[in-house]
Amino acid sequence: MTNMQENEFTREMEIPAAQLRELFGAADKYVKKLEQGFKVSIIDRNGRVVIKGSEENTRKAMNVLAQLMQSISRGNEIEEQNVDYAIELGQEQQEEALQEIDGDLICHTVSGKPIKPKTIGQKDYVDAIRKNMITFGIGPAGTGKTYLAMAMAITAFKNEEVSRIILTRPAIEAGEKLGFLPGDMQSKVDPYLRPLYDALYQIMGAESFAKNMEKGLIEVAPLAYMRGRTLDNAYIILDEAQNTTPAQMKMFLTRIGFGSKVVVTGDSSQKDLAQGTKSGLEVAERVLSKIDEIAFCKLTSRDVVRHPLVQKIVKAYENYEDKENARALRAQEREKMKAKRRPEARLRDRK
Asked: What pLDDT digit, counting tens, does each position of 49-67 carry?
């Protein structure tokens, strides 16, 4: 008998047939992820699931299965991202955090789908929005920064905590020139604001959105339209804030009036500003980080909730940028050393 067999540990748990199908996934793809993630084997024996592996790994795998079962019991649909994140938390023995995250219901979409934070980072972000007057959500694409902020804004509006919603973005092309677009001013700026409209339609419904838009209770506008205004009793979201200049960011933040709540979202790795232009988001983080009632939430590749491939892409770019920054830093150090040696060499030559 090999050491592996001698150390093999077995755990069993009962799982109802309906939950079993969802837990295992199509072609057992979820259970294969669990097996790979925890280095165990998981076998279904007519509703009795047998987990084999080391004592610690079988315990972790069983705890994650139990948490996913509870999630299904609460009416959630298990997706690949849920399983991947549950495995991550299970490896760190934080799988019980899944229950706390799942218990935080923000609202429902117009089709009845619940909107909740899906990661610890997202939960911290949502809690910060509730607690603070101004919240900065900073992180890569796919972390739910704008969508969660939009859900919080619509919930506050429906609960009459604010009298209107104002959504704004700086109108900067993402590396492409759109040229002279046809139509009136609104038609020209709509392409920049389309992601905000998409979220509003999904959460609020097109009819309700159009009705509130006509009444002026919901406003979607470029950042330039904010100049000279004071925004009282409003929920204000500034999206793509990495594309603001420091002057624009200061202008925006000084518009805030009584009874208002502000969420600023951005991704410092996707700036479309002219080369050499400082980002208002980065300057704001340095200037405002110690002020009460202003929170800065950093989301990472771990908080990406789009297709799992997006998480891998974001992580790959993060690793690449870290290496490039380290290389640039080493080059700067070498240049400093060379500059320091030149006067010493000239002095030796004179002697």
From this structure: 999 999 999 999 999 999 9
Question: Is residue 174's pLDDT more than 50?
Answer: no
* Contact between residue 5 and residue 54 where contact means Cβ atoms under 8 Å apart: no
One-letter amino acid identity for 203?
I
Provide the 3-class DSSP secondary structure of residue 112.
coil
Looking up tokens 């604010």 gives 162
> Distance between terminal CA atoms of the chain?
78
Give the tens place of pLDDT for each residue, 320-346.
877 888 888 888 888 877 777 766 666
Instruction: Give the DSSP letter string of 134-202.
Output: EEEEE--TTS-HHHHHHHHHHHHHHTTSSSEEEEEE----SSS---S-SSSHHHHHHHHHHHHHHHHHH
27 — phi, psi (to 5°)? 55, 30
- Residue holding tokens 């704004």? 168
Q: Is the pLDDT higher at 314 or at 225?
A: 225
**Quick one: DSSP state of residue 61?**
H
Name the phi and psi angles at 197, rounded to 5: -60, -45
Amino acid sitting at position 140: P
Nearest to 41 by CA among 61, 18, 66: 61
- Could you read off the pLDDT of 194-232 as tens digits, one per residue? 778 888 888 988 899 889 989 999 988 888 888 878 889
Residue 192: other Cβ atoms inside 10 A: 21
Q: Provide the 3-class DSSP secondary structure of residue 45.
A: strand
Strand order through the sheet with 294-298: 218-222, 164-169, 234-238, 261-266, 134-138, 294-298
